[in-house]
Amino acid sequence: MYRTDLINAAMGARRMTAEELAKRTGLGMTVISAVRNGKPNPKIDTLKRIADALDLQLADLFTHDAAQEPVAA
Predict the structure, then answer these.
(1) Residue 70 DSSP symbol
(2) Which CATH architecture has domain 4-65?
(3) Who has the most CB within 10 Å: 50, 58, 62, 73?
(4) What integer pLDDT is reported at residue 8 of this predicted model?
(5) Are the beta carbons of 58 and 51 closer than 8 angstroms?
(6) What does the domain layout of the chain look like in residue ranges?
(7) CA 65, CA 14: separation in Å to the nearest integer?
């Protein structure tokens, strides 16, 4: 799973709207919305365009963060 939290945080830090992200990436608003909301299996090219527009590395979107893992009961 990719990190929607990082995408949304990077957008917030840059005060970038979804519309601005769509323009920078050349992707439609429907795609941007789906990715921001965790749509399963987006194309790697889509994530790469978003990462580039947010000055992130594509690999950062897949970095494992133990703090996000659910705690086993």
Answers:
(1) P
(2) Orthogonal Bundle (1.10)
(3) 50
(4) 96
(5) yes
(6) 4-65
(7) 22
